Amino acid sequence: TGAMVAAWRDGPRIRVGFRLATIVAWIVISASGTPLPLWFYGIGLLLTVLSFWPRPAATEARRSHRRFRIVTGLLVCWCAAGAAWELSYRLPPHLADDARYDTLVVIGDSVSAGLIGEGERTWPKQFRERYLDRVIDLSAQGATARSALRQAQSLNGRVDGANAVVLIEIGGNDYFELVPPADFATDLDRLLTDLDRPGRQLLMMELPLPPFYNAYGRVQRELAAKHRVPLISKRDFARVVFTPDATRDTVHLSETGHGLFAELIWQHVGGLLQQ
């Protein structure tokens, strides 16, 4: 809004207000954890710097205002492009309409495995009770992208070649444990490569990111595109987590939360599974 106002009116107060609004916007963007590419953020930063250029002498005021209008107009376009780009990741994942699978496999961490042992009614158990009895739950407490390779190898040894949807819910422990993003990229790349077998449809939960953890989400999106793995939006995950009484500690799911999560997964994969 500040850029749009500044594009049509100029003056010391307008420019000061625009600069303050831009600084606040950058703080909000940085804290949001939105994992758009670095080059895209670089363009926005360049336009911001150009828009902050000092106001020249009165003799060049008209030319300066024209340049200022162009830069602020480009900033508005940059914001709109970023919003549209991010919106594309909130849409449901595109899955083949004609494919059918008979098994759901879960490669996950404690969000899927639960916290209190065998008696906990985790979402894979509730999914098995409600929708499909052929669920292979390989989730494990504390799992990371690197340790999940063992889960993938276990799956390959048990049901290699099976017709299965493989849901990957991994990555939260990587950023909680401050695994460097480059190492996370290497581990996740290996995991997706190892899981990609004939007769499988891979599907990955996008990570809900804390402030300033954009790099982990960027890695996940880039590797999802590389391996052609559809992503379930982090907004879906967040919608479950922020439901009243859905979590034990704001992260791990309660029994109610596990039920909501099972319903969420069914909404995305139910059309692919043979009952």
Structural class: alpha/beta
Shape: elongated
- Radius of gyration from CA coordinates: 23 Å
Biggest sheet, open or closed, and with what strands and sense?
A: 5 strands, parallel
What order do the SSEs take from the amino end to the carboxyl end, as H and E?
HHHHEHHEHEHHEHEHH
| Uncertain stretches of 5 or more adjacent residues | 1-8
Beta-strand percentage? 5-15%
Provide the residue-averaged pLDDT: 83
How many angstroms does the end-to-end distance come to? 51 Å
Structure write-up:
The chain has a five-stranded parallel beta sheet, sandwiched between helices. The chain contains twelve helices and five strands. Strand 4, helix 10 and strand 5 form a beta-alpha-beta unit. It is α/β, with parallel strands linked by helices. Helix 1 packs antiparallel against helix 2. Helices cover 55% and strands 8% of the residues. The longest helix is centred in the first third of the chain and has 28 residues, at 61-88.
Question: What keyword list fits this structure?
Answer:
disordered N terminus, alpha/beta, 275 residues, 8% strand, elongated
